[in-house]
Every structure is written in structure tokens, then in C-alpha cells.
Amino acid sequence: MQTKIAIIGYGNIGRAVEQAVLASEDMQLTGIYHHNDNFDHIDADVVALCTPTREVPGFAEQMLQRGICTVDSFDIHGQIYDLRAKLMPLAKQHQAVSIISAGWDPGSDSVIRALLMAMAPKGITYTNFGPGRSMGHTVVVKAIAGVKDALSMTIPLGTSIHRRMVYVELEDGADFKTVEQAILHDDYFVHDETHVVQVPSVDALNNVAHGVNLVRSGVSGDTHNQRFEFNMEINNPALTGQVLVSCARAAVRLQREGRPGAYTMIEIPPIYMLPGDEEQLIRGLV
Amino acid sequence: MQTKIAIIGYGNIGRAVEQAVLASEDMQLTGIYHHNDNFDHIDADVVALCTPTREVPGFAEQMLQRGICTVDSFDIHGQIYDLRAKLMPLAKQHQAVSIISAGWDPGSDSVIRALLMAMAPKGITYTNFGPGRSMGHTVVVKAIAGVKDALSMTIPLGTSIHRRMVYVELEDGADFKTVEQAILHDDYFVHDETHVVQVPSVDALNNVAHGVNLVRSGVSGDTHNQRFEFNMEINNPALTGQVLVSCARAAVRLQREGRPGAYTMIEIPPIYMLPGDEEQLIRGLV
């Protein structure tokens, strides 16, 4: 029996979820909705919420109230636990499952960080992002007067320190020095090494490539200098969409097992994200 | 309340488990047993089985029958699913949990492989081991006539292909060429590039360093060239001992939740391996 999945929000992530569903034999796509559509006749076991992150909590509540599972890639790190706490009673009341912050960071990187903590409990983990586009920083620059289009790239410098490379395309008559100072003094940029570069076309630079370099040196038992590193170089929305679909599978399984609630990815067994026969998976992966 | 943990088997791994327990505030070491001890008065929530791998199934059965959880690092890849199937009914009958094959491979590498499969379902994962000592290959060489001591190092050549560097210390009067031919024609070595080197002292070379380079290039949705890499350079028994202790914590939690059974590491939520407050863990790791 295929899992029925619907998508709310059809931007980069929504489209990537669609592709990942079409590539999954155990999934059936039953609808694609825009954020202001009517959901009265939605027919799905699970809904992938691909709206802007701030709209995620409201849609999650709407779906959970109907007993429909949800997955999202809510990415405001400081508010993830609070979202989980908010959705938990609703999910339990309606016997549904919500897997939140299912992407790569938060998401699969979180799983790696938890695993490395279990392998070497003492030590420091550095998460170095990029090179890749920061959506949050890009939005801030686009809002500055005189900016026609912008791109803020995150460049990893190691030990979780990042450089911001900001590319701006100016409106006619805008003054570059004024725009540059506005960026350099914005709260989003003031703590990081930031370079602002004027370009004739931001569109010509756009690229959804991203990556991470996650490093831990730690202590197992009383043995120091245990060294771990995780690297990836990926198409950002394609990975996020795939993780959402894999977590949709896990959400439905948890619901069927009678374990409703709101979960982050470090709270779910990795095998629940995978399709196919349990024996074959264990024989092939363990 | 501390978790009471006992150790059976006190070699490299048993000693590493002891160190990891002593470094864990939520754990209390209640006994260290040798394989032929009497277990009538064992007082533990969970026992770490640190015996040779072939003795693990028997001890796991003995402990599960008493309702005591077990963790082991059973490492015969082709028999892991069968061990899980064998222990499953016993664990359920006695309301206990057994987490099997909890080390780094099988173990944490298995979790990484499962996670990468969820992130890019199509593609090839290569697991490249070493440089580090292969216990299995070393034992085979030690059994050859004329060999006083031996060390077989596994050297990664990429794409899961490995070179064997075999260091032998000969008994007086033994012929190197004869020993070398016996090694090169043994089933353990015949499929790999193997070099045999005579040394005056194998003990002078011993080192428990090991490592892995795990690589996947795969497809997320319909997007190819998603690239992932996990590297580690570690003290081998220290890591295995730490993973056993982290999984002991998970075993007791699963038992307390009323979810008895036999599990591999890809079937348990990563957060179950970690001590401390759930909210702090989620806020810190996700």
C-alpha cells in the first residue's frame, strides 16, 4: 500500500519534494496546494509543508487537527524545541505525527552531531557551512533601499566561523558606498567578516549548491584525540526535499505504530526513513 | 537514578567499557565478570558483552532470560540479522532489550550508511577501512606454522578495495618464503593485494589506531551528484567501548518504555544514546 502524500507550498522545496515523491515507489502524490488554497478535501496520510518557515506552525496545526501527519524543514534553530512543545499535545490528541526541522541543518546534520556526541561525549563539534547561499542573509540585503537584487554567500573559515560574501545589483542612481555601509552595520552581518561586491547581474550568479564540513575532536571513555569529520557538497533544495520525503515515511510509520507526537530527526530510528523490507535493509546496511 | 551496568569479558573492549562507564555520571559499574564466572548474583540493568564475538549469542541469551538488557559488538556482518532474529523472541518474552552489533562497523558506520541512503536513495556507498589492524586477518596469520607473532594491517585503496600489509615475526628456523606463500594462498588474503614483511618484533608495531573513510555519491529526488563523506581516525577499542556504553543507555530506556526486543543501531533513535535532559539535548544538537 502506497503512502498518500500532499505538498503545501510550491517553491524550490515543494518542487524538490514532488521529484522525490515521484522517485519513491512506496509514495503516491495526491495533491499540490498553495498556501491560500482550501484544504477541506485534502486526501493524504502525510503533508510536506514547503511554505516559508514562519508559516509552518500554522499549517502543521491545521493538518494535525485533521489527524494528518506533517513534515517540515522549520529552520529557526532557537525556536525548534518550542515548536515541538506546541505541536506535541495536538499531535497526540489527534493520533498523528509531526516530524519538524527535517532538512539538512537542522536535520541530517543534527543526527550526525548526536551520533558523534554518543561516540565521543566530551569535545567540541564545529559545523562549517557552505560555500552556499544563505536565504536569511539574502532577504535582509534585498530589503535595503537601492538594492535591486542580492545574494549573500556563506563561506566557511573553520571552527564555525563564516565569511559573508554579499553580491548586490543596484537600482539606477543608488550609491554603492551607502548600500555597503547599510549592510556592514546590519545586525545580520555586524559579527562576521563581510565583503560587499557590486555586480551587473545577481541572477547570473545564482546556484543552489551548498555544503557542510562538520568536525568533532573528542574523548571516548578516557581516550582523547578521537577525530571525526562529515562533509557534503549538494544541491540544497534537492536534499531538503528528499529528507522531507524520507521523514514523511517515518512519520506515517510512527503513526501506524500508535506513537503519535512531535519529533525532531534525532528522535526517530534512521531505518524508519527508508523504504523496503526490514530484513534486506538490516542485511545491507548494518 | 543511575543505570547499573556490568561487564562480561575483560580484554581491550571490556577495559574500554569500564573507562566509558567511569566517565558517565548516569552509570554505575556493578561488576566485571570473566567468561567462566558464575552469574547467579549479577546485579545490573544492562550487561556489556565484551567476549570474543562467537561467545556473544550464548551470553546474550543467558542475560535476557534473567530480564537483563544486553549490548554487544557482534561483528560477523553476514550473521547479524540472524542473531537479531534469534534474540528477538527471548527479549520480548522477558521484557528486556538487546542492542546488537553496537560498535563502529557494524555500528555507527551503519547509522551513517542508513542516513545517507535516506538523503540520496540511489547511488553507491563505499566504506574504506583503515589504516588499522584487522583482528580476523591477524588471527589467521598467527595460526600458520612458523609464525611466532603477526599483525595484518588493512590499508584503504578507495571504492571499498583494501590492501593487506602483513607483518610477521618468525620462530627460529622457520622459512620466510614458505610462510609468505601460505599467507598469500589463504582464503582470507587471496582476493586482496597482499604484502608480507618479516620484522624482528611485531610487538614494536602494535597500535590500536583505526579509521574509516565512508563515501557516497547519490541521487536526491532526480538530482544527481549529491556527494557525502564521513571520515574518522580513532583509538579502536576506546570508540567501541564508548558506543557500547551509549547503547546500554538506549537499551535501558527502550526497556523502561515497554518496547522489549532485539535492535541494531539503525533501529534506535540517536537521542536515546545520550545522557541528560531532553530539552537541552534538542536545543543544543538540532
Q: Which short descriptors sum up this protein?
A:
six-stranded parallel sheet, globular, alpha/beta, homodimer, 286 residues
Condensed summary:
2 copies of one chain form a homodimer. In chain A, β1, α1 (12-22) and β2 form a beta-alpha-beta unit. Chain A is an alpha/beta fold.
SSE blueprint:
Two copies of one chain form a homodimer.
Chain A: E1 3-8, H1 12-22, E2 27-33, E3 46-49, H2 56-65, E4 69-72, H3 80-93, E5 97-99, H4 108-119, E6 122-129, E7 132-133, H5 135-142, E8 147-156, E9 162-170, H6 176-184, E10 193-198, E11 209-220, E12 223-235, H7 236-256, E13 261-263, H8 278-285
Parallel strand pairs in A: 1-2, 1-3, 3-4, 4-5, 5-13, 9-10
Antiparallel strand pairs in A: 6-11, 7-8, 8-9, 11-12
Helix pairs in contact in A: 1-7, 2-3
Characterization of the model:
The structure is a homodimer of 286-residue chains. In chain A, the strands form three sheets. In chain A, strands 2-1-3-4-5-13 form a six-stranded parallel beta sheet, with helices on both faces. A four-stranded mixed beta sheet of chain A has the order 7-8-9-10. The first copy, chain A, has a three-stranded antiparallel beta sheet with strand order 6-11-12. Chain A is α/β, with parallel strands linked by helices and 286 residues long. In chain A, strand 1 (3-8), helix 1 and strand 2 (27-33) form a beta-alpha-beta unit. Helices cover 33% and strands 30% of the residues of chain A. Chains A and B meet through helix 1, helix 3, helix 4, strand 12 and helix 7 of A and helix 1, helix 3, helix 4, strand 12 and helix 7 of B.
